[in-house]
Amino acid sequence: MPPPADIVKVAIEWPGAFPKLMEIDQKKPLSAIIKEVCEGWSLGSHETYALQIADATNFYITEKNRNDIKNGSILRLTTSPYQTALQLHERIQSSSMDAKLESLKDLANASRDITFAQEFINLDGISLLTQMVESGTERYQKLQKIMKPCFGDLLSFTLTAFVELMDHGIVSWDTFSVAFIKKIASFVNKTAMDTAVLQRSLAILESMVLNSQDLYHKVAQEITIGQLIPHLQGTDQDIQTYTIAVINALFLKAPEEKRQFDENIVDILNCPLTEMAHILAQKQLRSIILTSVIRSPTPINDEMAHQLYVMQVLNFNLCEDRMMTKMDPQDQAQRDIIFELRRIAFDVESEPNNGGSIEKRKSMYTRDYKKLGFINHVNPAVDFTQIPPGMMALDNMLYFAKHHQDAYIRIVLENSSREDKHECPFGRSSIELTKMLCEILKVGELPSENCHDFHPMFFTHEHSFEEFFCICIQLLNKTWKEMRATSEDFNKVMQVVREQIMRALSVKPNSLDQFKSRLQNLSYTEILKIRQSERMNQEDFQSRPILELREKIQPEIMELIKQQRLNRLCEGTCFRKISSRRRQDKFWYCRLSPNHKVLHYGDLEESPQGEVPHDSLQDKLPVADIKAVITGKDCPHMKEKGALKQNKEVLELAFSVLYESDEYLNFIAPDKHEYCVWTDGLNALLGKEMTSDYTKTDMDTLLSMEMKLRLLDLENIQIPEAPPPIPKEPSNYDFVYDCN
């Protein structure tokens, strides 16, 4: 007879004694269980003790998380969170340097547990740590020459404990003094600083900026680009990542007026980071990121890729204001830009007011504006009242006319000399192309939490978007000619151009020249070949025999996909517990047992290299206990308060397993592929249909391949709609040869 569901068999350790095997009744109060354990070892004052998970995390068992205890778990009897916090609070104030160092190390490890953190914070522990950072470092610096390693470790553990405590979100960031901010900034501004201290300091500054608008202003006054550049020029990718994260955080929280490009700032090395738009546009910072980070021999890890993606998005979002600004047809300065486009294209000077009649000049302007490809020939300013792309399209056209003048003049004159129905309208094309590029690069959207999709080529030029436009407008004109398009084909041409751009971007060219070369190989003829090849690979035969064969094969293919999903679950996946600071996230691993009956899972200190063995994953969930798989916004961890619920991409990667009495195991998949694999696999275990996009794609691909293999011998043979008729029986069987 199986044991009751509320009884859990565990082992409990106590230093200096043999572990005890016990049965814990989950219906009992936790204090009663601890009292029973203490009495077994003849320990008094059971209220000063607590139970911990005996693994690398050392998390305390509380009434809230006690249901996480599974059969076979190993627990440890230890001092209560309050007693531990009280002891560490006293020990970190010790006059002995060795005792202080050891206690700060213990504090840094213990602070990861929210139960301990709450007790330590209640003792005003955060204030104690900030005081140690503000005032204690001067005393330690006097000893730095003779105790340099000790000094670095001392400060590192202090800052690590502070970061871990703040990461629980118990204390508001707005409570910290200017002196503390200045001290943290001073660690960043020093050229020779312990790596661990520098990492923690950068992480603290980033969190301050992201969590408090008031602290943003204070931090921005203390940090300059000249002091951050040396950290980017080093070889430590973690330091580089933290540095770029601080730059991104400052830019993200900068007020709108501070994000505008300021031509009057000259001294970049000493300008404050509040002028973020100018700094991101500067060649020095861009070139350092390009040479020291992107083109570094060290492979770019996921976190660095994410920060580069964030910087790319924030840089492009500088265009949002112009993209959403309509042109004012009455604004003379804006109209002068259109006059400049006309002047460059046709090499004409502005005629004096008395140079001919007004009607003659209007007629001349109308003729030229028609050649320039505007929709409204009389008043082309009206063309730029559509948002998006608004004034951004006009800015791109002027940049192209000034910086690629020969190409601009050639395109305008070529099209103005064609027949009306075959001309590629430069004005209309530029407006629609700018709108398309904004959609492709998602201008105006906030950075995604999990995206790593940055393009190295956008870090190779100060005006990367404008240069991107210049390449693409020439591509559009070339494709127009290759398609021999007319004005009625405008939308078709734009669709082909979009496909050309997307295919060229998919290979992540390292420079704009490589992007241009890639486009040269993606001519309209090549696009047609690719489309035809893809159409053949995905061909859906419609004849009745083929459809019958497909229906017969489909269950076999579905079973093959099911087995692949289950095999992937048996291999397991590392999932991330997303916190407010991404780089200090915790990891956990989950995998299915080979017999498909149990899910093994457990916390990890870091992302694993390869599979994690079953015996190192202490928690188990029988598949038979699983009631349902929940996805998206219906998941419990997506209903909690926090920024995650606002992130559409995280919502799309979230799923939960419902088991027992309304208990949940919550997941956030690392990417869409893993999300589909796990939701499919779990549904397959429950005997439900696999409905993910990847299942459909895999089914189409495998079914198409299997069909082609089976029909290989029938190539170029017409398959009839109906089976051939069965011939009549012969009048006699004299032709049969009797072997006997």
From TrEMBL:
Involved in cytoskeletal rearrangements required for phagocytosis of apoptotic cells and cell motility. Acts in association with DOCK1 and CRK. Was initially proposed to be required in complex with DOCK1 to activate Rac Rho small GTPases. May enhance the guanine nucleotide exchange factor (GEF) activity of DOCK1. It comes from Xiphophorus maculatus. PANTHER family: ENGULFMENT AND CELL MOTILITY, ENGULFMENT AND CELL MOTILITY PROTEIN 1. Gene3D superfamilies: 6.10.250.810, Leucine-rich Repeat Variant, Pleckstrin-homology domain (PH domain)/Phosphotyrosine-binding domain (PTB), SH3 Domains. InterPro entries: ARM-like, ARM-type_fold, ELMO_ARM, ELMO_dom, ELMO_domain-containing, PH-like_dom_sf, PH_domain. The keyword Cytoplasm applies. CDD domains: PH_ELMO1_CED-12 (cd13359). It holds the Pfam family PH_12. Signal peptide: none annotated. It comes from the Eukaryota. One of its GO terms (molecular function) is SH3 domain binding. Its main location: cytoplasm. GO terms for biological process: actin filament organization; apoptotic process; cell motility; phagocytosis. Keywords: Apoptosis, Cytoplasm, Membrane, Phagocytosis, Phosphoprotein, SH3-binding. One of its GO terms (cellular component) is guanyl-nucleotide exchange factor complex. It is found in: Cytoplasm; Membrane. Residues 333-505 form the ELMO domain. PROSITE patterns: ELMO. This is Engulfment and cell motility 1.
